[in-house]
Amino acid sequence: MSAPNSPRTVVLVDGHALAFRSYFAISSLTTSKGEPVQAIFGFIRQVLRMLRNGGQQVIVVFDAPAKTFRHEQYEGYKAGRARTPEDLPGQIDRIRRLVDLLGLQRFEMPGFEADDIIGTITRRAEREGFEVRILTSDRDAYQLLDERVRVINSAGDLVGPDEIVEKYGVTVAQWVDFRALTGDASDNIPGAKGIGPKTASKLLQDYGTLDRILEEAVAGTLKPKGAMEKIAASVEDVKFSRDISRMVTDLDVDVRLGEARAPIDRDALIAELRELEFNSLVRDVLGLVGDGEAPEPALAEAEAPTLAPWETPRDGVTWGYRLSREDDLQAELVEAATFDGEVARVMETVDLAEFVGQREVDTVNAKALATHLMVRGVQVPPGDDPMLMAYLLDSSVTTAQAACEKHLGHGFPDQAAGRAVAGARLMAVLPDKLDGRRRELYETLEKPLAGVLAKMEVRGVRIDVPYLKAMSEVMAGRLKALEGDIYGHAGREFPIQSRDQLEKVLYDELGLASSKKTKLTGKRSTAVSALEPLRDEHPIVPAILEYRELSKLKSTYLDAMTVLVNPRTGRLHTTFSQTSVATGRLSSLNPNLQNIPIRTEQGREIRKGFVADDGFCLISADYSQIELRLLAHIADDPKMQEAFREGADIHRRTAAQVLGVMEELVQPQQRRAAKTVNFGVLYGMSAHRLSNDLKIPYTEAAGFIERYFSTYPGIRAYIDRTLEFCRANGYVETLMGRRRYVPEIASSNRNVREAAERVAYNMPIQGTAADIIKLAMVRLEPLLSEMGARMLLQVHDELLVEAPEGLADEVAELMRREMTSVFELKVPLGVEVGVGPNWYDTK
C-alpha cells in the first residue's frame, strides 16, 4: 500500500488521444527551424498543469506501434479513422522522451491498446483504494466508470455514471451493449446497421441487456418491428462488436501506485524544452522543481516591484491597467497603476483626473486605454506600445501573453501593477531588437496609426437601425420559406444547422456523392467548398447554400449591429486591431466589418445601413487592383507594367496576351478566366481549382496557367526568388521592411510546406498593400480634420470618410491625391472615389 503522504488520486493519460487533441487544438506551431511542435506543446502544458496538483499521481499510456489483437481479429478495425498527419508521429516520439524526463511512469504494450492498459491499471487502483481520473477522448473508457472512477473529457469536465445515464439513457453496465448496437464509425465497428443511439437506448431501457435483445430479435418478438428486423439481420455483427469493444482489464502491468514521481531530470528536460523553444514551459518546470531560477517577485508583489538597472533610460512612467471587458468602449477601468523604473504605484481609486496633463500613455495595448479615456473627455493619445514592437519583430506574436512569454520568459500579469512592470521591461528590451527598417515602421507608421485608429473608434459610424431591422425581418421571411423548400426536398424536417444531420440527409438519404472529408473527423464534408460542386446535382443544395448565407448575414450583421449601437452616441464603434493579422492588415472586432460580404447583392445592401450625419455625406476611396499593381512592380514584369501604365483593362489585356487574340475579341468567359488567374496566382491557384471555379476541363485550365506564366515570366521569377530567399532566411518582407517569419517552409509535411510557400510569396504583396493604406491614413488624418471631415472606417483597401456636404468634391480630390502619391511604384496607384448619403451609394 501507499505511504501516508502519497497521492490518493491516479490520473491516467491516454497519450495518443491527448497528443492528437493538442495537434488540432493549437494552430500550426513550429520552431524557428521549421520543426512542427504544436502537439508537444499542448501535451506537456497539460501534463505540467496536472503535476502542479501534488495530490495526484500522473501515469501516461500510449498505443504501441504494432497492431493489436483486435486488428488480428478484425482486419478493418479502425479503418474509418482519419489519416494521421505526417508530422504527428515524430512529435509523439518527442513527447515520450519528455514524459520520461518528467519522471513519470509510461506504459505501452505490443498487441494491446492504451485502453487495455488503462482498464487494467484502473481496476487495480480501485482495489487498492485510489480515486481514478482518466484523461481521454475515447468513449470506450465509459465502461470503467463507477463511484471512484471518472473520465476527464475534451472539455475538461468530469464524466461519471450519472452523466452517462443523463446523456445516453443507459447505465455504465450497459455501455458495452450500447456500443455494440450503435457501432463506432471512427473504429469501423459495425454494430447493427440502422440502429442509432436513441433506438439502442430505448431497447436497453426496455429489455435490460443485449443478450435479451438478441434473443427477442431472433424469436421475432422484439418491438418495435423495424428495430427487430435490423437487429435480426445483424446478430453476428452485434456480437462481434460487443467482443471487440470490451476492454482487457487483467494485463500484467508493472505499475507502482501511490508512489511519488521519480525526480525530474531537470537539466536534460530544460535543454529539451529550450531546443523546442518552449520558454514559458521552462519557467513552469523551474517553478515545479523548486530550484534554479524562480519567477520574478516583482510580478507577484504588485505593491512594490523592483527592476534591474535600465538598459535604456526613459522619461515619465509606464502604465498598467485592466478593463472590465476588452474591445468595448463602454467597459469600466477596473484598475490602473504606474511604474517609474523603481516603484509601482497602484491607484487606490481609479480617478481619470490622474491622466489629465499626460502627454500620452505608454503601456501595453496603449490604444485601448487611450480610447477609454477619450470617450470620457480626457484627450490623451496612445504613446509607446511594446505590443506593437513585439508584433513587428514577429507577426505571430499577437497577444500580450505571447509577447511576455517570448521576451520576458513569463506570462502577462493579471494585476495592473504587474502589467505596468511588464510593459516597462518590454520597452527596455524591445527597441534594441528592432532593426533600422522595422524601427522606422514603428515610429512612422504603427505608433502614429494607433492614434488615428483611436480617433476612428471613438467617432464610430452612424447606423440606420430601422433600415437594418426591416431588412432583418424581410430576411427572416425568406429564411422561413427556404426552410420549407429544404424540408420538401429532403422529404422530412431536420435541424438544417446540424452538420451531422445535414451529412445524413445529403449523402445517405438523397445519395449525393461527396468527394471531400474533414481532416479531423474523416466525416463527409458539408462545408460550402464541398457543396458548391453539387449545386446542380439536386435542388436542395442551392437552397441550403442560400439559407446559410442569409442566416449568417442576419445573425452576424443585421441583428448584431443593431444591438452594438451605442445608445448614447447612436453610432457603431468597432475596434480596430493592429496586431491580429500576420500580413500587417488591420482587423476589426465587435463587429468585424472586414467580413461584410460584398460579392452578393444581399451583402452589399447591408452597406445602406451605414449613413452620414445630417449635413454630411460619406466618401469612399478604394485602391483599385492594388495587389496586381504591386505584383507588377515587385515582379518587375514589363508586360504587366505596360498594361497598368496605359490604363488598360488588366484582365482583358491578360486574356488577349495569354490566348493570342485581339483585346476587342476577348470573350467574357476568357476575361473571367484571366481575372481568376490574375487574382489567384498569389494564392497558389492550381489548375484543379481553376477548373472547378470556371467549370472548364482540367487540361484547358492547366494550359491557361502555363501560358499565363509564359506571358508574364517576371511573376514566375518573383515566386522562385522569394521562395529561395525564404528558405535561406526563414522570413519574407514587404517593400517597407515589415517581416513575416515562415518556419513551416522547412516542414517535412508536404501539405504544411506547400501552404507555407503560398504564404511566402503572397505576404510581400498583401503586406505592402496593408502598409500603403496605413501610411495613407496617417497622412490623411490631420488634413481631413482641417477640413472638418473625419475618417470613420478602413476595410481592406478602402477608406470611408464623413465630410461636410459642401466640401465633398474637395475632400474627395484630397483623398485621391494623397492615396495615389503616398508611395512611389513603377506603375501608377489607382483610387476609385465615390460620394453618397450612405456607404452603398458611394459605389
SSE layout and pairings?
Layout: E1 9-14, H1 15-25, H2 38-51, E2 56-61, H3 69-73, H4 88-101, E3 105-107, H5 114-127, E4 131-135, E5 149-152, E6 158-159, H6 161-168, H7 175-182, H8 197-207, H9 210-219, H10 225-232, H11 235-245, H12 266-275, H13 279-289, H14 297-300, E7 318-323, E8 333-339, E9 344-346, H15 366-374, H16 386-393, H17 400-407, H18 416-429, H19 436-459, E10 461-463, H20 465-490, H21 499-509, H22 528-531, H23 540-564, E11 571-572, E12 575-577, E13 587-589, H24 601-605, E14 610-611, E15 616-624, H25 626-635, H26 638-645, H27 650-659, H28 668-680, H29 687-694, H30 698-711, H31 713-729, E16 731-733, E17 739-741, H32 750-786, E18 790-795, E19 798-804, H33 808-821, E20 830-836
Parallel strand pairs: 1-2, 1-4, 2-3, 4-5
Antiparallel strand pairs: 5-6, 7-8, 8-9, 10-11, 10-14, 12-13, 15-19, 15-20, 16-17, 18-19
Tell me briefly what this model is.
This protein is an alpha+beta fold and 843 residues long.
Provide structural commentary:
The chain has 843 residues and is α+β, with helices and mostly antiparallel strands. Among the domains are: 8-161 and 249-289, Rossmann fold (3-Layer(aba) Sandwich), CATH 3.40.50.1010; 304-460, Ribonuclease H-like superfamily/Ribonuclease H (Nucleotidyltransferase, domain 5). A six-stranded mixed sheet has the order 3-2-1-4-5-6, sandwiched between helices. Strands 18-19-15-20 form a four-stranded antiparallel sheet. Strands 7-8-9 form a three-stranded antiparallel sheet. The longest helix is centred in the C-terminal third of the chain and has 37 residues, at 750-786. The chain starts with 8 loop residues before the first strand and ends in a 7-residue tail after the last strand. Residues 1-5, 69-82 and 292-314 have low confidence and may be disordered.
